[in-house]
Amino acid sequence: MATSWVLAEYGDEAALCAAARRLRALGHKRLDAYSPVPLHDVDAALGLRRSPVPLIALVGGVSGAAAGYLMQWWMNAVDFPINVANRGFHSPPTNIPITFETGILVASLSIVIGLIVLAGLPRPHHPVFEVEGFRTASMDALWLSAEVKREDEEAVAREMEKSGALQVSRVPEGSR
Amino acid sequence: MSVETRQMATESALADLLEGPPVLVGSPEDRKLSEDIFRPVWEQTRRGWLALFGITLGLTGLLFSAIAYTFAKGIGAWGNNIPVAWAYDIINFVWWIGIGHAGTLISAILLLFQQKWRTSINRMAEAMTLFAVIQALLFPMIHLGRPWFFFWLFPYPSTLGVWPNFKSPLLWDVFAVSTYFTVSLLFWYVGLLPDLAALRDASKSKAARVAYGIFALGWRGSARAWRHYRIAYLLLAGLATPLVLSVHTIVSFDFAVSQLPGWHTTIFPPYFVAGAIFSGFAMVLTLMIPARKVFRFEHVITQRHLDNMAKVMLATGLMVSYGYLVETFIAWYSGNPFESFVFFNTRARGPYAPIYWLMITCNVVVPQVLWWRKARDNTIFLWFVSILVNVGMWTERFVIIVTSLHRDFLPSSWAMYRPTIVDWSILVGTIGFFGFLFLLFLRFVPAVAASEVKELRRELEHERHQQSHDQAAHGS
């Protein structure tokens, strides 16, 4: 199916959110907004759900800590018991620091890997970059994008213009 | 004027007095802010930068030649002996890792406490953390004796058939420091993503666009990505906070878990953490005062930031002084003759007494001037105070390590420690290498987090709007 990207710049967050709501009501679900800083109301307007990153962090942290503890127990008490000043081979208090560190390490790595995967990165080439004016999205401008079927392109662009867009551009997929 | 409005006026005047200078001067537009903050990246290389770069590059060369010499000759190239088996290697390790702690404190702990004054200084402080931890990581490596076997520290299945001893604080240290470096790097990089994307989009040459484009990973500032980004950044801060406290705690265990008088004290973990933050804030000030001047960042790194950092330095300095007091008190109160000997004879009156008194002067006496607003407002004065604190914290580690070791339990085992030229080269070399990395950072990466300052501006405007709204409601 031939798709097309329609991009529009808006002057403020309220206009962008209103346009996003309107397009969603018309049945266009593949919307996204772009801004130099995180916006507050846009998530609801785009109908985005809560991020699963905290869950990923929790799973990563717990499994990292568990693996760290098991590693110390297995290596120092089972596979190669080391007698240190006649303390028990399995000595829980001495295992606390490394258990804590491996927990933090794996949790942090899972957060960052999770963020990269969920945000669809790394992707240096993206249809939105085809629009020269889109460079301002990282500076001071707010942009809205809609990924639509080629035949809806015209209607969506008109809808965006009607909702107060400062400029509208279209990028047909595979047009380069 | 009604009583109410007069009361309002006094309250706001009082608030102004308490708040001091603003965290952001004026309310610059996003475009202006980005231009100001990115200017050092785009502008022509300055002569001063080149000169400093040359010097630090030379010192980096000195560092690696000294390390190569050490590898060729062995640890005998240093002044270490028995009983002073730990000396500059561990002094410098603890000093550098402590300096790193302020960066994490500023970027993570102050973020969780929603302190607005962290925003424009966090990037530089985090970079300082990374580069300081790199210096710190060098030392345990090169003091191994046979550094080419450094990987024996890690638990990997080897033909030797043994595993590391996890009951040793030295191994805890390996995990703590490597985790600290990894998490600091991730936190810094995640914070950089939006700015790297902005640099990519603002770049005029193709080479710059491709280079920043690769590191920006194709960040588009999309709402779908921001949603994950915001929570990921906050969670990383939440994890970095206990981590930074654990790192210096574990470093202090290297000492406190041993039986040596002067090391074997329970106050070491909190006292080490306070000392780390103390020295780290000093280093942030040492770097930031000139950088802010040269790059004309005075409107984003305001007097308020310097003032607050000076106050944190004063507070942590007092904690460190308390640490000195308590360990001395406990040495006397315990009635242990060996403990008392270290504190009342070896340190205060022994052959290294001048270094001990230099430590007391720099860490206890000098910071007291920061009680005065005039001292905190004078940036040049503040810069000299920060240098003295850096020196003081280095001497503290010297006092802890060398004075405790050089007088063993038996007087027949006593020996003096003198650093060799190789020791000095490595210390000076790491300072150069640190400066080298920091200069590269200032040249190629925005030293202030532009995206976060933009967010801060919105917050401040919102607050101002709210306040004027409230006042109007009261007035009617």
Report on the structure:
The complex is a heterodimer of chains A (about 180) and B (about 475). Chain A is an alpha+beta fold and about 180 residues long. Chain A has helices at about 15-25, 40-45, 55-80, 90-120, 155-160, and strands spanning about 5-10, 30-35, 140-150, 165-170. Chain A has a 4-stranded antiparallel beta sheet, with helices on one face. The longest helix of chain A is centred in the middle third of the chain and has 27 residues, at about 55-80. The model of chain A has no long low-confidence stretch (mean pLDDT about 85). Chain B is mainly alpha-helical and about 475 residues long. Helix content of chain B is about 75%, strand content about 0%. Chain B has 16 helices and no strands. In chain B, helix 2 (about 30-40) runs antiparallel to helix 16 (about 450-475), helix 5 runs antiparallel to helix 15 and helix 6 packs antiparallel against helix 8. The longest helix of chain B has about 35 residues, at about 170-200. Chain B is globular and about 75 Å long. The mean pLDDT of chain B is about 90. Chains A and B meet through strand 2, helix 2, helix 3 and helix 4 of A and helix 2, helix 6, helix 7, helix 8 and helix 16 of B.
Which terms would index this structure?
A: 176 residues; alpha+beta; B: 0% strand; globular
Question: How are the SSEs ordered, and which strands pair?
Answer:
The complex is a heterodimer of chains A (176) and B (476).
Chain A (H helix, E strand, L loop, with lengths): L2 E8 L2 H13 L5 E4 L7 H5 L6 H27 L12 H27 L23 E8 L3 H10 L4 E6 L4
Antiparallel strand pairs in A: 1-3, 1-4, 2-3
Helix pairs in contact in A: 3-4
Chain B lengths: L2 H17 L10 H13 L4 H27 L14 H25 L9 H21 L26 H34 L3 H11 L6 H34 L11 H27 L8 H31 L3 H13 L3 H13 L7 H5 L1 H28 L14 H24 L5 H26 L1
Helix pairs in contact in B: 2-16, 3-15, 4-5, 4-8, 4-9, 4-14, 5-6, 5-9, 5-15, 6-7, 6-8, 8-9, 9-10, 9-14, 10-11, 11-12, 12-14
